[in-house]
Structure to design on (329 residues):
């Protein structure tokens, strides 16, 4: 879709291939297909979660979407305009706050640096406001990063990300290094900021439970492609792609969960992202694969509501309810 002004972010057919070193001088060039024809849309004020196992291309996709890396194909629009044509509208928060912050910069300098054209006289008051927004005591502004806890450092990163009032923030494993209670606090904070400022988020994690807790829609990635896209509330027990079903079944149950799934253990290995198979990329591990799956790659098919699936036999692997209930607290 073009002219998509209602989307904070709209990308079509995004590709990113990494060239491999050549073994011999005149050998044909080979590539690792990290992201292979991905479409993404995020409306203002909404969150798209992206989940999938390690190496499936989540971070590469995120980096390309915010312009930190270059796409080899596809189109990307921020606020309905070609990405990169204007600045200040996208920001990112990554997993490790200590490496994201310059150890020799005080907190006030780190945050003020992200605010375009900030008059010197307003530095303290504006940075103090931003710190208060992310629940940080403004008195900490003259400290250095090593004088703060991991949770406080991540709040500084979020304050810095929201400082330029971006329409879109990429959160790549942004809460993964925090302990469970801090994760909840930071997620609450992000939600609150989203409500107040209408910011759109892409929330990337290998942890489906964390993604389910924050997202409106969720995209499941497998080997560089989206295999299922659905509203987050359908991720409890209405998934239709065999890989999403297996991923959901592996989510640890906690007491009080409405649906506690029986774990599906996948056998087999994923194919190489260099020599991709001609058929379905999941066929080597799919418990319900049939002969057609090896021959023919399934396309991503979407319905009118935007729900999409890439499988010849959707719904054929079912999530089974756990027979042994996790005891209530
Ligand atoms: N700069 C690079 N050069 C070559 N290959 C790369 C580069 N960056 C990523 N890759 C490869 O691209 C694929 C996707 O990597 P990516 O980091 O996007 O995965 P991910 O889904 O974010 O994984 P994780 O959950 O471990 O963070 C992997 O096979 C990775 O080895
Ligand atoms: S297309 Fe076939 S192999 Fe691929 S996920 Fe669907 S059933 Fe499994
Ligand atoms: Mg990653």
């Amino acid at each position: 879709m073009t002219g998509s002004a209602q989307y904070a972010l709209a990308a079509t057919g995004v590709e990113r291939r990494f060239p491999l070193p050549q073994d011999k001088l005149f050998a044909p060039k080979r590539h690792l297909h990290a992201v292979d024809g991905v479409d993404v849309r995020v409306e203002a004020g909404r969150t798209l979660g992206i989940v999938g196992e390690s190496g499936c291309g989540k971070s590469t996709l995120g980096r390309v979407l915010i312009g930190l890396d270059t796409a080899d194909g596809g189109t990307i629009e921020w606020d309905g305009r070609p990405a990169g044509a204007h600045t200040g509208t996208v920001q990112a928060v990554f997993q490790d706050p200590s490496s994201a912050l310059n150890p020799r910069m005080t907190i006030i300098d780190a945050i003020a640096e992200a605010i375009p054209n900030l008059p010197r006289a307003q530095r303290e008051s504006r940075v103090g406001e931003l710190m208060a927004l992310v629940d940080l005591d403004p008195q900490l502004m003259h400290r250095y990063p090593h004088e703060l806890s991991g949770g406080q450092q991540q709040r500084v990163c979020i304050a810095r990300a929201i400082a330029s009032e971006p329409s879109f923030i990429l959160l790549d494993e942004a809460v993964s290094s925090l302990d469970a209670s801090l994760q909840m606090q930071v997620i609450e904070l992000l939600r609150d900021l989203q409500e107040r400022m209408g910011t759109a988020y892409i929330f990337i994690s290998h942890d489906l439970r964390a993604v389910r807790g924050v997202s409106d829609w969720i995209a499941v990635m497998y080997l560089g492609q989206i295999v299922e896209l659905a509203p987050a509330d359908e991720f409890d027990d209405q998934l239709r792609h065999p890989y999403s079903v297996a991923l959901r079944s592996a989510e640890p149950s906690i007491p009080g969960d409405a649906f506690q799934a029986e774990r599906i253990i996948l056998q087999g290995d994923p194919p190489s992202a260099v020599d991709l198979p001609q058929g379905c990329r999941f066929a080597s591990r799919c418990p319900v694969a049939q002969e057609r799956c090896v021959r023919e790659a399934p396309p991503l098919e979407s319905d009118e509501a935007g729900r999409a699936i890439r499988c010849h036999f959707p719904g054929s692997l079912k999530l089974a309810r756990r027979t042994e209930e996790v005891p209530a607290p």
